[in-house]
Amino acid sequence: MKRTLYVSSAAAAAALLVVGPVAAATAASTTEAATGGVSAPLRAAVDAEGAAAAALKSHPGVIESLDKDGSVWHVNVIGKDGGNTELLVTAATGSVAVENSDENDDDGDEDAALVAAKVTAQQAMKAAVAAHPGPVWSVQWDDDDDSNKTYWDVEVKSGGSTTNVHVDPTSGKATVSHSDNDNDENDNG
Q1: How far apart are CA 36 and CA 26, in angstroms?
Q2: What is each CA distance from 185 to 10, 161, 179, 182, in whole angstroms?
């Protein structure tokens, strides 16, 4: 028995929309395999956590500060030898380059407190985002001479504003400090 299948033009268009990209991707990978070419997988921009991981993989130590400037993350790492290295992590690729390296860091007392802190920069970022959701724009070890307090200062961006969250380096407790409207700032991120 012969069956005839009728497909409406709307169903055919829907099938092409679904199958079209898959077929195009399959054709591209088949062409690539045939030519021996290699393509990089599409990846999202590197966030603060990714920049921290890339920097520490390149230069093991403890992160002192991390901030985004346009399409580059600036990451300062106190190395195991006590030297301070400023690294540039490209937000698009995660590639790391050394911007500046100072083997004779004059901030020995402050660095000792940072290295001994129970809460790392990465943990401070997670605590800040738990207290105030949004992407982290910067994290900095802050030794406030006026109040004799030390804390992580984390900037979280959300809804057109920047919120500073202070994270205790011993307990990990996050406290929202203040928010600023970003409409006048020109951050390319």
Answers
A1: 15
A2: 48, 10, 13, 5
